[in-house]
Amino acid sequence: SYVLTQPPSVSVAPGQTARITCGGNNIGSKSVHWYQQKPGQAPVVVVYHDSDRPSGIPERFSGSNSGNTATLTISRVEAGDEADYYCQVWHTSSDEWVFGGGTKLTVL
Amino acid sequence: QVTLKESGPVLVKPTETLTLTCTVSGFSLSDAGMAVSWIRQPPGKALEWLAHIFSNDEKSYSTSLKSRLTISKDTSKSQVVLTMTNMDPVDSATFYCSRIQKAAASAYYYYYMDVWGKGTTVTVSS
What we know:
- The complex is a heterodimer.
- Chain A has no helices and nine strands.
- Chain A has strands spanning 9-12, 18-23, 33-37, 44-47, 61-66, 69-74, 83-91, 96-99, 103-107.
- In chain A, strands 1, 3, 4, 7, 8 and 9 form a six-stranded mixed β-sheet that branches.
- In chain A, a hairpin with a 6-residue loop joins strand 3 (33-37) and strand 4.
- Chain A starts with 8 loop residues before the first strand and ends with a strand.
- By secondary structure, chain B is an all-beta fold.
- Chain B has strands at 3-7, 11-12, 18-25, 35-41, 48-54, 59-61, 69-74, 79-84, 93-104, 109-116, 120-124.
- In chain B, strands 2, 4, 5, 6, 9, 10 and 11 form a seven-stranded mixed β-sheet that branches. In chain B, strands 1-3-8-7 form a four-stranded antiparallel β-sheet, with no helix packed on it.
- The A-B interface holds A 1, 31, 33, 35, 37, 41-45, 48-49, 54, 86, 88, 90, 94-102 and B 37, 39, 46-49, 52, 60, 62-64, 96, 98, 103, 105, 110-114, 116-119.
């Protein structure tokens, strides 16, 4: 099966830039999506297809994907960005959606 | 406005079968390229995809849970139903349904989960 590896936690001060990585074998050949989940709430997509942003998501959220690592970048981090973030891909070999283990973003 | 709402029992006993319903609005389960997915999340743990069903009735299941899952849809009722057999306390989780949206890139299509329901929490206990 396909495995996506995320760091369990990332901490950043307000106004700084947070980078959350998602590692997977040749993930650069896949379309990566990122979801934000705040406590007690359902996930919300913040970046899809590697780097596209749904309407209503601030431009501070951006994504990239190359080689074996995809990255979600949050610029000018705000307290309201504190949440769990999950990466996701569709693994065609097994016809399955795969989620990363999630990264807890803490705003110091 | 696209919405999805999960419903089902709050409590099930070990070995019982869980039946969950996702009722959708704002789109049709017969819309070309559309799909609905089920995802679960045990308390304090990560998201885990379970199954999805497309408008053409194409289905996919998690490899690890395939033997226990069945997904189906009733287009006239705008509902997608997931059954999970032989429930165990470790299956206690919040269950979400989500819409899978089809989008076009330059030379191919891709899919992502663009709208999620609020989730329903299921506890497995005797």
